[in-house]
Amino acid sequence: MIGDLRARGRSGRCGLAVLAAVALAAGAALGREARPAPGQAAGQEPVQGRAVVVQVPGDASWTDTGFEVAAGDLVAFEAEGAITLQKGNPEAECGPEGYDLQTLQQPLSGRKLGALIGKVVIGVTLLVDEETKEERREESAVVFFVGSKGSVEMPARGRLFLGINETVIGDNAGAFRVIVTAPPPKPPVPGP
Fold first, then answer.
1. Which position among 80, 104, 143, 171 has the lowest Cβ density within 10 Å, counted as fewest Cβ atoms?
2. Are 82 and 163 spatial neighbours (Cβ–Cβ below 8 Å)?
3. pTM of this prediction?
4. Alpha-carbon gap, residue 136 to 63, rounded angstroms
């Protein structure tokens, strides 16, 4: 069984590195769209202050935390739960630290497959094909490792999302429950 997952990691997932970049840039080229957050993001349970509990499904590309962050903000994460990276394969289960395997098709290289990761979306551009009227979304984002527990200094200003370190997510199941605690928003700086 685990051989199936490892073989898939070498063959089925070792497509062009461009595919991973396109999946990241599109937000969900190979999976579901990121979860919108009007006021409060889907999958959140409110807790005290600037903290939320976010459910991060294993089969969703990205989940919106509902937080706008500033570069340098220290955001704390505490995650629990498990996902499976291959439905029906009990040996392909992992926690927020990930499964001890790396592939070419991961949003964050150098980290374990299936690990809990985050990204700060700096900007989004919507492109429309003049002939087909097909819309394509491109993002500028910075991706970083989260794991089970710790604090991360935000690498940029923008919207904070959580996800799974994998781009082929259609055969995943389960979810991580993550408590995200961010500092209060900074007041705007008065102009000259």
1. 80
2. no
3. 0.71
4. 19
